[in-house]
Every structure is written in C-alpha cells, then in structure tokens.
Amino acid sequence: MGAGAARRLDRRVSVPVDTGLRAAARIRAEADGRGISRLPVLEGEGPLAVRRIRGAAGQARVALVGAMSAPLGGDRLTVTAEAGPGARLDVTSTAATLALPGRPKGPAHYDVRLSVEEDAELNWAPEQLISAYGSELRVTTRAEVGAGARLLLREEQVLGRAGEQPGTLTSRLTVRCEGRLLLDQELACGPGAPGGWDGPAGLAGHRAIGQLVLVRPELGQHPVRARMLGELAAVTPLAGPGLLVTAVAPDALRLRRVLDEAVGVVGG
C-alpha cells in the first residue's frame, strides 16, 4: 500500500493529504513511591503509535512504532516524553524513521520535547533517522533537566539510503539543566545547506552522524576531559553536569558500533 493510501485510511488523522498531517505523541512516567515507574499518560496518533514494552526492574519502557509513512513534506510531528520526580523512563523505537519527499511544498518538521524532573532518569535512544533523497526535514530536540536528574540522549542520523544522495536535513539540539543552558547547536546537511558541510572541516565525506548527551549530577563535580575516542568520535565536557560525544561514520552500522563503544567508555 502506498503512503498516500495509508494516510487516507487512517481515520485518526483528519488533515487532508495535500496539506501534510499533524500528529503528536505524549509519554509521561511517574514514580509510585514503591520504586516502580508507571505510565499514566501514553498516547499517540497517526504515524506516532506508542507501546509499552518490558524494561528493567522498576523502569517504564516505551517504544515508538511507525504506524504509517512519515515524515513527508509538509508534515508536523511532535513527541513529548516526561519523567516525573523520581521516575525512570526509557524510550526507544521499533524501526528507523525515514524522511521522504511529499506532495505538499515545504519541509517536514519533527519536534521532540523531553522533560526530566527532579531526581528522575530519562533515556532517549530511538533508531536512526534516515534523510532520503528529495526530502526536507527540520528536527528540533529540546531537553529540560531538573535538579539531581539524569539524561541519556542519543541521536543517529543517516544521509541518504544505500547508494543515494541525501535529502536536506536541519537538526537543532538544545539541553538545559535547572534552567541553565548546557548545549545549543545546529547541524545542516544536504542540498541547500551552507557550503562546507561535506568538506574537510565538516563531515569529510561521511554519511552517518551521531550524538550522545549525558547529563548527570556527578559530572558537575568531576567533569570529563576533552579527548578523541578512536578516529571517528570525540568527547567534550559541557559547561555544567554533562558531556557530549560527537561521532561520524561511513554508514549506519559503523556509527552504531562507534556510539556503543563510546557509551562503554564514558559510562552511559
């Protein structure tokens, strides 16, 4: 079934196909006082289906399930994940997200809003985002971290499918801890992006990009030192209780291995 047909059959999305769809998902975990995290809010619509899956003891674990093709041109998708005070929440996805060109003119938007309240823990680690040829996607990720909270945020982005030129991808990541800015950066790749993105000072021909952000109270007391992790990744301390690992690789498989190794080194 084609993407257009799938959209027309999904009665939960009433926006006409030619204007792009609007869809949102919301996840909230709350501690029950007995060391178990519950999910009082678990809702999604259109392509953003959400399912509870088995997690570690006491942890709430959720998977995002792609229920239909998205994001396409003109779409606006929003995912909100919240860990209430003392809660433990892990969010993953069942498959890669594929950005494709769509009939409506203009870019697709994918907004991720993360909130980690006091003494809570949130792991955000979905599968790769693939920017297919002809697509235009703007991703915005914003994380707010409270006092004593812990965040692991992992992003993997792949420019084009195998043997394919990339679409246009703009990605902005902002992280705050107790209202203080820890990280605010933007990356633009593909046709129309500022010159040099693929040059020696940019991706240098690599087609997979990854980021790992850790925010932990102990990192404020004992910051890591800036250093390379092999030839494809680097760790940078943030101005506060956090660190950033940035990695590039020739493909998605190698990127996954590099980030897995980085997690082991920095204690993720």
Essential attributes:
globular; mainly beta; seven-stranded mixed β-sheet; disordered N terminus; 268 residues
SSE topology sketch:
Elements: H1 3-9, E1 22-31, E2 37-44, E3 48-53, E4 60-66, E5 76-83, E6 88-93, E7 97-99, E8 108-116, E9 121-124, E10 129-131, E11 136-145, E12 150-159, E13 168-177, E14 180-189, E15 208-215, H2 217-221, E16 227-229, E17 233-237, E18 242-249, H3 252-266
Parallel strand pairs: 1-5, 4-6, 5-8, 6-9, 7-10, 8-11, 9-12, 10-12, 11-13
Antiparallel strand pairs: 1-2, 3-4, 12-15, 13-14, 15-18, 16-17, 17-18
Q: Give the rounded overall mean pLDDT.
A: 91
Which sheet architecture does the biggest sheet show? Answer: 11 strands, mixed
Number of domains: 1
- Helix content bin: 10-25%
Radius of gyration: 18 Å
Instruction: Tell me the structural class.
Output: mainly beta
Instruction: Quickly count the helices.
Output: 3
What is the overall silhouette?
globular
Care to count the β-strands?
18
**Low-confidence spans: pLDDT under 50, at least 5 residues?**
1-17
Beta-strand portion reads over 45%
Order of helices and strands: HEEEEEEEEEEEEEEEHEEEH
Q: End-to-end span in angstroms?
A: 40 Å
What does this structure look like?
The protein is mainly beta. It has one domain (3-9, 23-266). It has helices spanning 3-9, 217-221, 252-266; strands at residues 22-31, 37-44, 48-53, 60-66, 76-83, 88-93, 97-99, 108-116, 121-124, 129-131, 136-145, 150-159, 168-177, 180-189, 208-215, 227-229, 233-237, 242-249. The relative contact order is 0.11.
